[in-house]
Amino acid sequence: MAKLKTLTERIRSWAHGTGKYATAEFKWFTEEGFKCEVLPVKGGGWIKGRFRFRLEFVPDEPEVIQPTDPKSPLADLRSHLDV
Fold first, then answer.
1. How far apart, in whole angstroms, are the C-alpha atoms of residue 3 and residue 60?
2. How many Å apart are CA 81 and CA 83, to the nearest integer?
3. What is the pLDDT of residues 71-80, one digit of tens each?
4. pLDDT band at 11; cut points 50, 70, 90
5. Residue 81 CB neighbour total at 10 angstroms
6. What is the Cα gyration radius of the chain?
7. Where is this region: Disordered (predicted)?
8. Chain-centroid distance, C-alpha 68
9. Cα 27 to Cα 21: distance, rounded to the nearest angstrom
10. Mean pLDDT for the chain?
11. Phi-psi region for residue 43, left (φ > 0), alpha (ψ -120 to 50) or beta?
12. Contacts with 13 (C-beta within 8 Å, 6 or more apart), sequence order
């Protein structure tokens, strides 16, 4: 399990393209994540879990959704029925 210090060292090494983690495939970039432990500020001891990065693209201009015709192809036939 990695502590935060180890994690930050690996990220720094990867970002600068140096060290043994420069070209490694990191588990924290996968859905599975990377096993680690964190120490909360409020105390209570180390908490085991997984650390993973998620990258999301948000376009500057939102996609315009074209309105669809809410009428069913059968709506015209139904309008002529006396039900």
1. 36
2. 6
3. 777 777 777 7
4. confident
5. 6
6. 26
7. 63-83
8. 30
9. 12
10. 75
11. left
12. 19, 20, 21, 22
Backbone angles phi, psi at 4, to 5 degrees: -55, -40
What confidence tens digit (pLDDT) does each residue in 42-71 have?
A: 999 999 998 887 777 788 888 887 777 667
50: tokens are 């997984």
Q: By percentage, how much of the chain surpasses pLDDT 90?
A: 8
CA distances from 69 to 21, 57, 72 (A): 54, 30, 8
Q: Which two tokens stand for residue 76?
A: 């015209």
Strand pairing partners for 38? 47
Question: How far is Cα 22 from Cα 24, in angstroms, rounded to an integer?
Answer: 6
What are the tokens at 58? 């948000």
Token readout for 28 is 């924290």
Please answer whether residues 28 and 51 qualify as being in contact, where contact means their C-beta atoms are separated by less than 8 angstroms: yes
Q: Could you give the CA distance from residue 30 to residue 48 in angstroms, rounded to a whole number?
A: 18
